[in-house]
Amino acid sequence: MDIESRRVPSLARSPRNLPNQLTLGRVILAFLILFLTIPSNFWTRLAACLFFLLAVGTDLLDGLIARRSDRTSQFGALTDPIADKILILMALLACLGANELVLPMWPVTLIVAREFIMMGIRLLALTQGRLLTAERWGKWKMGCQVFGTLLLLLALLATTYEIQYAPSEPWLYEATQQLLDWVWIYLLFMCAVTWATALVYLRKNWQLLKQSWIESPKS
């Protein structure tokens, strides 16, 4: 997503419109996914996968409503990307915290670090009266993260099913291991895309960062 900066508009509308409610609902679903993934149970993890798809659906729906109505709010512009980050990070941490998946932590650590850095820059822009809005390449990054996170959830679900209901089926074990291999490769790709977009973000907003280092005189 290309990033555009603009002056923060006054908060003329209440945050309690439908797109904003969907955004808040996505945050609630993110924590629900985390709690449902913790138990080593196939059915709760199946529910977590379904809730993840529901959360992605709310993201698509609130964007569609905002475009069709041609109305946005300061609340929505600020919280929508934060809700997206919370959804992805909660699901990734839930998957990698599960005992059934043996995957390195460093790609997810890099993704988490990137998202916190970007949120910090957004907040820094707000202190200067600017709102950084997301454009197309950020949406591509989000789509890449959604697909990778869904792959992780499905790999965890398949592994849980194999352990609980088919421990003596070698073909299923081999299939889940092959799926995990593909997940690992895609996780590396997702990490690369995430940081590539971060570099574009930093380059585009370098002047904003430089201005933040300049000491302003005390009044």
Commentary on this structure:
This protein has 219 residues and is mainly alpha-helical. The protein has a single domain, classed as Four Helix Bundle (Hemerythrin (Met), subunit A), CATH 1.20.120. 76% of the residues lie in helices and 5% in strands. The protein has 7 helices and 2 strands. A two-stranded antiparallel ribbon has the order 1-2. Helix 3 (74-96) runs parallel beside helix 5. The longest helix has 35 residues, at 170-204. The radius of gyration is 20 Å and the shape is globular. Residues 1-15 have low confidence and may be disordered.
Features:
219 residues; mainly alpha; Four Helix Bundle (Hemerythrin (Met), subunit A); two-stranded antiparallel ribbon; globular; disordered N terminus
Distance N terminus to C terminus?
A: 38 Å
Tell me the structural class.
Answer: mainly alpha
Count of domain modules:
1
Question: On the 0-100 scale, what is the average pLDDT?
Answer: 79
CATH architecture: Up-down Bundle
Q: How many strands? A: 2
- How many helices in DSSP terms? 7
In this structure, how is the largest beta sheet organized? Answer: 2 strands, antiparallel
CATH topology: Four Helix Bundle (Hemerythrin (Met), subunit A)
Report the C-alpha radius of gyration, rounded: 20 Å
The fraction of residues assigned to DSSP E strands is under 5%
